Amino acid sequence: MYLLYVSYMSDVTTIQVKKPALAELKEVKQYPRQTYSELILELTRVYKACKMKNQYDEFLHKIQQEKMAELWDNKEDEDWENA
Predict the structure, then answer these.
(1) Sign of the torsion formed by the C-alpha atoms of 74, 78, 80 and 81
(2) What gap in Å lies between CA 2 and CA 20, rounded to an integer?
(3) Which of 17, 19, 62, 68 could form a disulfide with 4 if both were Cys (CB 3.0 to 4.6 A apart)?
(4) Which DSSP symbol is given to 16?
(5) Cα–Cα distance for residue pair 36/25, rounded to 1 Å
(6) Direct distance between the N- and C-terminal alpha carbons of the chain, in angstroms, rounded to an integer
(7) CA nearest neighbour of 43 among 28, 22, 21
(8) Which residues, 6 or more positions from 80, have their beta carbon under 8 angstroms from its beta carbon?
(9) Where are the domains of the chain?
(10) From CA 67, how far away is CA 19, in angstroms rounded?
(11) What is the mean pLDDT of the chain?
(12) Model pLDDT for residues 9-45, shown as the tens digit of each residue
């Protein structure tokens, strides 16, 4: 197990990261000298943006379901299908 040092505003903490996680972090670095702290902050920023987009998509889907039910589940359509 490797120790990963994260520096943020002059405070330094140590977090434990298993070797496969460290390999993944190394693989997604944007440039060779990017610090793990910079990388983790970027990953969390991207994660939050994706999460917000997903919430927006789910909201739109819910609204669309209600509207589609309103449009399709009506007496006129049922009468027309049975004619």
Answers:
(1) positive
(2) 10
(3) 17
(4) E
(5) 8
(6) 72
(7) 28
(8) none
(9) 2-81
(10) 49
(11) 81
(12) 667 888 899 999 999 999 999 999 999 999 999 999 9
